[in-house]
Amino acid sequence: MFKSLKFPVVAAVLALSGLATAGPLGIGSTATAEMIAGWDIDVRPDGMGLPDGEGSVAEGEGLYEAKCASCHGLFGEGEGRWPVLAGGEGTLDTLHPEKTVGSYWPYASTLWDYIYRAMPYPVPQSLSHEEVYSIAAYVLYLNDIVGDDFVSNKDTFAEVKMPNEENFFIDNRPDVNNERCFKNCADPSKFEIVTTINGVTPTGHFKEDSGVAANHYDGNPSAVSESGISTEKNITKVALSEGATLGRGVYDMACQACHNSGIAGAPKVGDVAGWVDRIGQGMDTLNDHAINGYQGADGVMPAKGGNMALSDDDVVNAVAFMVESSR
Amino acid sequence: MTKLYEPSLPKLMEAIAAEAGGMKGIDRRNFLKGGIAAVAGLSSVQMIPKANASTNLPPNLPEWQRHLGSGVVAKPYGEPSEFEDLQRRTVPWLTVDAASSISMTPLQDLEGIITPSGVVFERYHGGIPNVNPDQHRLIIHGLVERPLVLTMDDLKRFPSVSEIRFIECPANGGMEWRGAQMEALQFTHGMLACCEWTGVKLSTLLEEVGVRPEGKWILAEGADAAGMSRSIPLEKALDDTIIAWGQNGEALRPEQGYPLRMLNPGWEGNTSVKWLRRLEIGDQPWHHREETSKYTDLMPDGRSRRFTWVMETNSVITSPCPENPLKEPGFLEIRGLAWSGRGKIKAVDISFDGGVNWERTELKGLVLSKALTQFSFKTKWNGQPWLLQSRAIDETGYVQPTLRQLRDERGGWSIYHKNSIHTWNVTETGDVFNVQIS
Quick one: closest CA in B to A253, which residue? Predict the structure, then answer.
């Protein structure tokens, strides 16, 4: 099915003319081995791309609890609405399928690749190869796919078999064949009309009676307390100033990924002890640090949380929300 | 000549009216409000007490004609009139975090087939990176003769193409697999857009690097926090994949992958990797997270389809729709959009009775391959309830399926690729509701 490639011919012609190093148009520069090595992070099911290094389930446990559990739960069950990573075996053909690493993913290599490239969610590509070997081993362990003595390296990792591997098949659509009929195409006596569930759609922009807004992301109002604040204080109950009230939406959108969980050294919102000294610096310093970013003793606070679309006022409001919720 | 479509099945329509009875109170009130505003000639926007709008109406001279307006470059980059309300919108409860979320295109407010860049739907897995184009590079390596690193200037030296193509998230409509849920066109079909894309054909770049004979797959990878990655078969890359830097006459918007993205026409949007930084040529697919855990389709027997790339033929009526109810009886042009990932739209049919009987519509404007295509049907509405549906047929002869056909085959948990015939229930008041016929 693949079209035949005429590149070998082109290459041969170029070789004859003594220009074998340049392409037909001669545009661009050679990508050096060093450049490629820095960016070539992908891993494949046959093990291609797995780097040197080693890890263990035991080391993975501590790392996972420090860097992943605030969102994904201590046992991979998912805090609040953050993704579930474990469980769900035997549910795929039921009315409540639960797709997790263990129940659904066909290849273990995907787990290594994904954790390295994209997790922890707020600080991707911050883990060392050894840390990924350990954490990935621990996630497999949480899913009963490897034992607690599993040694995780490029040889053993490529050997791991996932239970659901055989249950994937190549796209076989079109799988339905409708007819272009014009008269009496359906039997209306068999029609069942299902209407929508009222109240789940944000319709404030076109219906007067609906209060739900859909033009900005205001997160899940309960996500803050659900997702990993082990705290001290239920921040949803604090009476907020006007600025802080406005700032809550900004916080949900741009700050909670780090500040709910305390990932990467971010002070947790609601953790009174962790905020006392920070608040002591005064609001100007806090606002400046939040707007312009800074490198502190605990980690890097990116300018505006990395979301440059925010106005300075948005950030100031978010800081007000964080401070008022952490006193 | 326009024909009046009476409810051909009075009993059925009565039954629908009875079933929708619960909603009627509220909606009649809405309708009354709308009716009063319409009589006074005021849209809700004009009702904002800016000026006494009625003094602008004939025979009076409107306020804006009595003095000079603002001059050139008052806005060096123009924006819509303050009276317009064109916005992407989201369903906040859908996702836990805005950086891995979705917003939808306001299809109900758009004209023609081009989606303005500012309201193209968004889908991110790790937010929008703020990429400096001078410091952005595309590396092409793997099973090639000449691994290359390309700057944006390098890329723009290649022969370029501009194509109008739709892009659609395969989860478009995915909230509706198990029942009607979303009371708005923007949310039932809005993960869809159509733009003119400018860039270099991937086949041109592949000739430049010289793919080795074993090279059969390409890994495309983004420079975002998600490091978005997908495996693309070489066959597609040599066919019509574009590496694009332009969108609707200007540079890509950051939301759409500035400064560089892949565009796989007709394929699920997720394969069109944004903020593209790397292409690796290999001899087998990578089976990364976005083609295993996500973007695979779970079937009722517990098995799953993989590599479901093509967006199959789909269509929807955009006027009337829940956001665009019928305001007065009389002449009516029913309008809609159809599209197919396999090529051109050949025809679109329309039904007023939930799919029992069908009529042909007219296609209008440009009919392009893998692009949104407009259809139109002229009729009259005199307060009769309708179960409005549209059904598209593409140039391969594929006929858009019914929801029942899809559910019989795929069950209710496959999330993606729900391209079934959609139903709007137009009530006697002119209000429009999303319903499903099963």
Answer: B98
